[in-house]
Amino acid sequence: MKRLLSIVLWSAISLAGAAALGAIALHRGERINATWFVLAAGCCYLVAFRFYSAFIAARILALDDSRATPAERFDDGRDFVPTNKWVLLGHHFAAIAGPGPLVGPTLAAQFGYLPGTLWLIAGSVLGGCVQDFVILFCSIRRDGKSLGQMAREEVGRWGGFLAQLAILAIMVILLAVIALVVVNALKASPWATFTLAMTIPIALLMGVYLRYWRVGRVLEASLLGFALVLFVVVAGQWVADSPSWARVFTLGGTTLAGAIIVYGFAASALPVWLLLAPRDYLSAFIKVGAILALAGGILLVRPDVQMPALTRFIDGSGPVFAGKIFPFCFITIACGAVSGFHSLVSSGTTPKMILREGHARLIGYGAMLMESFVGVMAMVAACSMPPGVYFAINSPAAIVGSTAEAASVTITSWGFPLLPGTMHDLARSVGEQTLLNRAGGAPSLAVGMAQIFSNTIGGPRLMSIWYHFAIMFEALFILTVLDAGTRVGRFMIQDLGGHFWKPFGRTGWMPGILLSSGLIVGLWGYFLYQGVLDPLGGINSLWPLFGIANQLLAAVALVVATTILMKMGRWRWLWVTLAPMAVLVTVTMTAAWQKIFSADPRLGFLSYASSLAAQIASGAIPFAKIAQTQRLIFNQRLDAAVTAVLALMILALLADALRHWYALIVHRREPVLHESPYVATQWAEGD
Amino acid sequence: MRCAEEKLANMQGNASSHFVFRISAVAISRLARAAWQSLREWSGDAAYDRYLLIAAARPGAAPPLPPAEFYVEQLNRRYSKPTRCC
């Protein structure tokens, strides 16, 4: 009877998922309600978790609950801490969910709602979740070793070296691009700039509270911080309304970029308890709270999706970023579908805290499903605003013009009606001077969130408060990724430099701290600065670079996973990791090729550099702008070189892995697994 | 626990509505306690208590660090590797 009920239930869920997917895929012409998106994603995730992850857990990985995990064997109350599986799920989710699943789908909405939504669902279920789950399992079986260590041991020295290089590359580009998202969100917005600036003294106050007053009382301090943040979100309006204060906090792109660079350096060099950790606590609470609120808001409001299923920009002429659906939809939405960066968390803190091997399924596979759902919600939020408004916010001035009238004419000519007054009214309703040309995804997502939230609580009166709450929420956790990433990058540079000069590797040595912090900040700061100056908006160049770097890391992780499955003798099931790896390598290589060599100046770095050089030669560039244009040419060539290096790294890694795999297939090499020996658990079943 | 609940119900004169009420109250308070404990663990609030428990279970090991030292040391280690993602 129970079995029959189960069959009926899962058949119903599968049918509901298939019907909802069919509805969003085949619907044309009229508006479609967001409920279909939630239903399609929810049912697909449930079915994938129930069946596919169970199949991987049982047939491929053979998770063994009788085996003691590293958390049990090395339990020290510090790194190795056995943790309840639901608590660890929360930890892991808070660690992997960053700005990527919010920004990527928002940018990819320029193709229409369909390509991004399908990729978010299929990519996560068949790729991202599998990567996170398998890498988590591999790390648990190896005492919590990192991806780099596992690559070195299981694939070879090259694999390990490439993994390290890929991590550093992705870190630099990631930090630059997310900083650019913040700059574009805060540009000429005194309210948003004031609110975000005030989160720094709030974090410092929390840091002192936690260090000296109520040591380690994170909940109290976070509650205090949250109350203060809500206050400064409201107070931002007073600042924006005061002409003298508004002037102080109205900053241009380059000034904001400079401020963020200085902030990144300070956060990396200052003691971690003072600024970085309290910000992280605050951001984790607000992040989880805002994501839950967004989910609740979408379910309550059930907005209509106004963006068509497919737009004319599938041909590659999109204003937000150039390039066709293949490969650029798959590069733009990395986090939310497949994100290589997750493999660092899956082989970092989480494997050292897991209580039972069996929990890896919920934590590895399940947390990524949750992140993918965040991506689907971001897609709904972006697509539920009128498409004309979406394109006006996200398109650079060089394409749609910098005035509401010019933007209205251009965007209406694309088939998305937009009245000149619409953008003005919208900006006024959210308490901004303008919302035009704010490429980066954050402001359009904030408008989408504000519309959903204000339809739930407060109505139009609270629209401006909700908009600035959403901007603060995005910017707060973007800056948290930025300062935590800068610090990790600093450690990586110190580690690398320590091989050449011993004192540099000492993490407590002040000159070493300052120099390495300066180096890492200088690296991402340079890319940020060039992004701010780029007339095409910066995101057009940097986001695909970030996507390529992130997918490169995913390819590294899946190569490691495939190699380990081979050594475990799971030849029949290799496709589980091999297929997503092949997709990622194809996507990444195609995107890299097009970004370097495409003849379209908006797409190809080299052709853009050549077209600028030709403009200088023909005298089309005024004399005063020649130096700036030459710098732009240099930056395009630098971006091409960085893309080429990333692509070559993928090829080198593949060549090394293929050599290794061939030796395993023809039995020239013994399949030696570097797993820790089996130790039986001492814990009873219910522990 | 069940005995205690039954006793409570008997004290109320075996009235079934009181029994159900008591059971629900116990279940809710147990759930709330578990949720609070989970929140403390998730946020890091309970990290030092957990560390002391481990230290107490290992007689002969070095004396446990004082709270402030443990807090700073734990943060330094946590933020030297990727803890936040894209």
Tell me what you see in this structure.
The complex is a heterodimer of chains A (687) and B (86). Chain A has helices spanning 2-26, 34-60, 70-73, 85-96, 100-108, 113-140, 147-155, 157-186, 190-213, 218-241, 243-249, 253-269, 276-301, 325-332, 342-346, 359-383, 387-394, 397-400, 404-413, 420-429, 442-456, 463-498, 510-533, 539-567, 575-597, 605-617, 626-665; strands at residues 32-33, 304-305. With 687 residues, chain A is mainly alpha-helical. Chain A has a two-stranded antiparallel sheet. Chain A contains 27 helices and two strands. Chain B has 86 residues and is an all-alpha fold. Helices cover 70% and strands 0% of the residues of chain B. Chain B has four helices and no strands. The N and C termini of chain B lie far apart (46 Å). The mean pLDDT of chain B is 81. At the A-B interface, helix 4, helix 9, helix 10, helix 13 and helix 15 of A face helix 2, helix 3 and helix 4 of B.
Quick synopsis:
Chain A has 687 residues and is an all-alpha fold. Helix content of chain A is 72%, strand content 1%. The longest helix of chain A has 40 residues, at 626-665.
Feature tags:
heterodimer, A: mainly alpha, globular, B: mainly alpha, elongated
Strand content range of chain A: under 5%
Strand count of chain B: 0
Q: Helices and strands of chain B: which structural class?
A: mainly alpha
Structural class of chain A: mainly alpha
Oligomeric grouping of the chains: heterodimer
Q: State Rg of chain A.
A: 25 Å
The coarse silhouette of chain A is globular
Distance between the termini of chain A: 30 Å
The portion of residues assigned to helices of chain B is 55-70%
Q: How many angstroms separate the termini of chain B?
A: 46 Å
On the 0 to 100 scale, the average pLDDT of chain A is 92
User: What sequence of helices (H) and strands (E) makes up the elements of chain B?
Assistant: HHHH
3D shape of chain B: elongated
Give the strand line-up of the largest sheet of chain A: 1-2
* Low-confidence spans of chain A: none
* Helix segment tally of chain B: 4
Helix content of chain A: over 70%
Radius of gyration of chain B: 21 Å
Please report which band the strand proportion of chain B falls in: under 5%, 5-15%, 15-25%, 25-35%, 35-45% or over 45%.
Answer: under 5%
